């Protein structure tokens, strides 16, 4: 059985979500006192090792969430933000930065919660030692950002091509599909809803959007050790996503890379 910890200011507001999780056979522990102890850092962090998921209630304000996230980042837990209805720009930023792994609400059905938590569980089970143990060297993001334009525009060497080919080879099927959608869009922005619909081919819900944000973050992370000057995928708040022009140009002008992406 998987254990879920709900951190809240008022345990009465969590009854609905707690019941749904229990129907899915999750063991749920809901606490307001532990939340207070966490913010005061007076409680041993060993307590977190009993849980696979930590849900931050909508009763916890954004500033408190900001204080909690560095503590939770040190733990082996999946962090989920629960909202009443509206997902804020800051919530999206947390997803993009991989500080939280999903967003849920009381309005979510049991089916949506089931699929969301199952997707998070699969994410934690996927490891890629080969990808993590790469041997090539990469400059830091700051150095890459300030290097002269002439260096960015020079002809890529074989080592750089290898870096991109290796990343693309290690993309999951969903990650590759998202990349393909953005490539076909060229320099245009693709809405989150459009991408979700093309991936899942059904009505878009919060679970899909949360899963998309998590997947976009993983794609960005995988491209971090390439020579890209900026993030592989650009996020335009309130609009959607667009592929980094440098990455788009590299894929379109490299036959080997373009062939792999086109074949999915």
UniProtKB/TrEMBL annotation:
Superkingdom: Bacteria
Pfam family, one: Trans_reg_C
Keywords noted in UniProt: DNA-binding, Transcription, Transcription regulation
Protein name as catalogued: Helix-turn-helix domain-containing protein
Residue ranges of DNA binding: 134-245
UniProt cross-references to InterPro entries, sorted A to Z: OmpR/PhoB-type_DNA-bd, Sig_transdc_resp-reg_C-effctor, WH-like_DNA-bd_sf
Span of domain OmpR/PhoB-type: 134-245
């Amino acid at each position: 059985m998987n254990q879920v910890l709900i951190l809240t200011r008022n345990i009465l507001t969590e009854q609905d979500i707690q019941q749904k999780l229990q129907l899915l056979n999750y063991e749920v522990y809901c606490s307001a006192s532990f939340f207070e102890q966490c913010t005061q850092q007076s409680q041993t962090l060993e307590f977190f090792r009993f849980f696979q998921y930590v849900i931050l209630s909508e009763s916890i304000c954004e500033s408190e969430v900001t204080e909690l996230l560095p503590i939770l980042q040190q733990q082996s837990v999946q962090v989920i933000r629960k909202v009443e209805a509206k997902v804020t720009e800051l919530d999206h930023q947390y997803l993009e930065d991989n500080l939280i792994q999903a967003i849920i609400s009381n309005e979510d059905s049991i089916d949506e919660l089931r699929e969301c938590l199952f997707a998070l569980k699969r994410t934690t089970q996927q490891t890629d030692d080969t990808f993590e143990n790469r041997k090539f060297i990469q400059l830091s993001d700051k150095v890459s950002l300030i290097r002269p334009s002439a260096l960015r525009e020079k002809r890529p060497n074989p080592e750089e091509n290898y870096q991109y080919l290796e990343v693309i080879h290690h993309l999951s099927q969903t990650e590759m599909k998202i990349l393909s959608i953005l490539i076909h869009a060229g320099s245009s922005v693709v809405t989150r809803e459009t991408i979700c619909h093309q991936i899942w081919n059904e009505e878009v819900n919060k679970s899909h959007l949360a899963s998309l944000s998590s997947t976009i973050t993983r794609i960005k992370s995988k491209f971090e050790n390439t020579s890209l000057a900026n993030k592989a995928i650009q996020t335009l708040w309130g609009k959607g996503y667009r592929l980094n022009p440098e990455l788009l140009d590299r894929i379109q002008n490299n036959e080997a890379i373009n062939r792999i992406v086109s074949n999915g």
